[in-house]
Design a protein that fits this description.
There is one protein chain. The chain is mostly helical and 70 residues long. The chain contains three helices and no strands. The two termini are 28 Å apart.
C-alpha cells in the first residue's frame, strides 16, 4: 500500500467521523466538532504522507498537482 493510499484512507476516515459528528452531536457542538475532525484529518493525512512517502512518490504527487492546475 502506497503513501498516497494511506493518506487517502486517513482523510476519508476523518471525513466520515466529521459527518457522523455533524449528524449525531447536538447543534452547537456538532458542526464545530465535524469541522475540527475534517481539518485534523487533512493535516494528519498530509503529515503521514510526508513521513512515509519516498522521494519518487512526493515528486509524482507534486507533478500531479501541477498538471491538475488550480
Amino acid at each position: 500500500m502506497g503513501a498516497q493510499t494511506i493518506r487517502f484512507l486517513i482523510q476519508l476516515g476523518f471525513a466520515f467521523a466529521g459527518l457522523a459528528a455533524v449528524v449525531f452531536v447536538p447543534a452547537p457542538h456538532g458542526p464545530a466538532l465535524g469541522l475540527i475532525l475534517v481539518i485534523f484529518g487533512l493535516w494528519l493525512g498530509r503529515r503521514v504522507f510526508r513521513r512515509i512517502a519516498s522521494l519518487d512518490e512526493v515528486k509524482a504527487d507534486l507533478r500531479q498537482r501541477v498538471d491538475d492546475g488550480p
